Amino acid sequence: MSLHPVVAQVTEKIRERSRSTRSAYLQRLDATATRAISVDRMGCGNIAHAVAGMPLDDRFKVVTERAPNIGIVTAYNDMLSAHTPMQPYPDLIKCEARQHGATAQVAGGVPAMCDGVTQGTTGMELSLFSRDVIAMATAVSLSHDMFDAALMLGVCDKIVPGLLIGALHFGHLPMVFVPAGPMPSGLPNKEKARVRELAAQGLVGRDGLLDAELKSYHSPGTCTFYGTANSNQMLLEAMGLHVPGTAFVQPGGVLRDELTREAARTVLGIVKSSRRFSPIGKIVDEKAIVNAMVALLATGGSTNHLIHWVAVARSAGILIDWNDFSDLSDVVPLLTHVYPNGSADVNQFQAAGGTGFVIRELLDAGFMHEDVLTVRAGGIREYTREPAMQDGKLAWHEMGLSKDEAIVRPAGAPFSASGGLKLLEGNLGRSVIKVSAVPDDRHVIEAPARVFDSQEALHLAFQAGELDRDVICVVRWQGPQANGMPELHKLTPPLAVLQGKGFRVALVTDGRMSGASGKVPAAIHVSPESAAGGPLAKVRDGDVILLDAISGILEIMVPAADWAARQTAVMPEALRVANGLGMGRELFAGMRRNALAAEEGALSWT
Asked: Distances in Å between the alpha carbon of 389 and those of 255, 385, 393, 475, 526?
């Protein structure tokens, strides 16, 4: 099947737009890649420090045999259920490297916070910028410059984008990403959401809510809904940065361990001394970025990636924007129904066909580039197959037909002919909305605004019964410069309750929503943000707003002259001070001050 013309056009637009920045990036990459190996170019004292902690046999391999040395960057901690299984990975990797005449060292650890723990708390205001901290920590880890390749151990929301951004700043190194897999299925996600909505109405107490949450999040492994963490894994598969089919194999067991060992074997197969040198900066090109965007849209993935993948692409000298996502979304079919876009969880998605089925369908229908470099010799086609243990060894087999067309469908019979995201534009700025889980009769909402300066204020209004009507809730001062752009997932239950009562409700905000959010219309990431003088700072209670996800409109229905003359509110001083104090937020003041807009990836380092 030939490449779909829109996919080809978007790719070419990105290539032209990125011509100078990508060229400069590749020149830096090539200059670094052509250097001599570390033991031949570094000082003797530097080398001695680098190998002093290694076992004697490993030290001999590095110094005398000049064997490849793998740097391991790990996001392991046991606060994140998704990262808990990674504790033994470094030892598995070191053992496997030795089997192939190589060595491995833990180059460094990166911080990894759980948004599920910090959701709705002050700590969430550190979440977005933790991505940039992770990128910098990755750079610090690799700055020892003693490595011929690297393995990136991470799974969750900001961790994978941060690791990938950091990795691309060391684009001369071959790298493979190593996940841990989802926890077994617990309380169904829809039942969890139902209990949360009942709790928001006071119909379920704290004990009942806690019981439901503990049954949902109950063991090591990634959360089972298709939020940002699991979207990360889909995108890494689509970019060819995993061992094929690794994303959703559950933790523990022989298969998971063997896939981790295979990651070491894979990265050793693409080091500079091999026949197939494949540095990550060459793998992540314009076509790989488009493949990731297509995979996100085809699976109704997390809106957070409209920020994160812009930042990832820029780290490789590639410039993408929300128009690119929107153009692709118009033609890319929606192939999956996984919660919050359906009732299935990622374990059921994996059983029905998983990432391999989706990638095969997109390739065969011409929605993904097949002529791309990956970490595997067989290219992106290898990612259409499923791994399993066969006679004690890893083997991959063809996916066949969908095992459940209520969960995954072929490209010829999709759930929807277009993707799950929509760009909104108008006199309130530019915004995005995830429509894949929004009921069809809620794609257009026109209602009076109620303006809030915090999510807490919205909760109080809801509890007081002030929102029992058609209403568009505007929550401002939530952008990167204002307070670090926290996720506002705690707003989902009360708004869902209002929608369930039959009211026409929506959210408009310059903040983010969780990758797990869905059924309530939400125009998010509004840019420019209110703290930067954006239009949300001019909205008043009672103004009628039109959110039209069909035509792509976000407009305030105020006469143009009146709107132009209206004064722009300034962030209240008490709120500004409060947003910058406590829970370590003072340390992030420079990041907030320097942050670019959401559509520019909310970068804090440029």
From this structure: 6, 13, 5, 50, 47
Side chain identity, residue 598: A
Which pTM does this prediction carry?
Answer: 0.95
Amino acid occupying residue 421: L
Mean pLDDT across 536-562: 96
Cα 484-534-478 angle, rounded to 5 deg: 25
Q: Is the peptide bond before 340 cis (omega within 30 degrees of 0)?
A: yes
Contacts of 506 (CB under 8 A, 6+ apart): 442, 445, 447, 472, 473, 520, 521, 522, 523, 545, 547
Question: Which burial class, exposed, middle or buried, applies to 255 when counting CB atoms under 10 A from its CB (0-12, 13-18, 19+)?
Answer: middle
Spatial separation of the C-alpha atoms in residues 148 and 140, rounded to whole Å: 16
Give the annotated binding-site residues.
156, 223
- Separation of alpha carbons 348 and 408, rounded Å: 10
Percentage of residues of the chain with pLDDT beyond 70: 99
H or E segment and range at residue 38: helix 38-41
CA distances 474 to 172, 424, 450, 498, 544, Å, are 45, 15, 6, 15, 11
Residue keyed to tokens 């530097």: 46
d(CA 523, CA 432) in angstroms, rounded, equals 6
Whether a cis peptide bond, with omega within 30° of 0, leads into 528 is yes
Q: What is the pLDDT of residues 316-348, one digit of tens each?
A: 999 999 999 999 999 999 999 999 888 899 999
- DSSP designation for 86: G
CA angle at residue 365 from 362 to 367, to 5 degrees? 55
Helical packing angle, 286-298 and 5-17, nearest 10°: 130
**DSSP-derived secondary structure letter, 447:** E
The string of DSSP letters for 196-234 reads HHHHHTTSS-HHHHHHHHHHHS-SSSB-SSSSHHHHHHH
Contact between 246 and 150 (Cβ < 8 Å): no
Percent share of the chain, pLDDT over 90: 86
**Backbone phi, then psi, for 345, in 5-degree steps?**
-100, 180
> Is residue 186 a contact partner of residue 218, using CB atoms and an 8 Å limit?
yes
Query: Residue 515: what pLDDT?
Result: 61
- For residue 276, what are its two tokens? 């197939």
Q: What's the chain's average pLDDT? A: 94
Domains of the chain, start order: 5-34+67-118+127-184+219-398 (3.40.50.2300), 186-218 (no CATH), 421-600 (3.50.30.80)
pLDDT tens-digit map of 355-383: 999 999 999 999 999 999 999 999 999 99
For the segment 391-434, what is each residue's pLDDT rounded down to a tens digit?
Answer: 999 999 999 999 999 999 999 999 999 887 889 999 999 999 98
Long-range contacts of 601-606 (CB under 8 A, 24+ apart): 601/307, 601/308, 601/310, 601/311, 601/312, 601/314, 602/128, 602/307, 602/311, 602/480, 602/485, 603/132, 603/311, 603/314, 604/129, 604/132, 604/480, 605/132, 605/135, 605/136
**Residues annotated within a binding site for [4Fe-4S] cluster:** 156, 223
CA–CA separation, 301 vs 491, rounded Å?
19
The alpha carbons of the chain give a radius of gyration, in whole angstroms, of 24
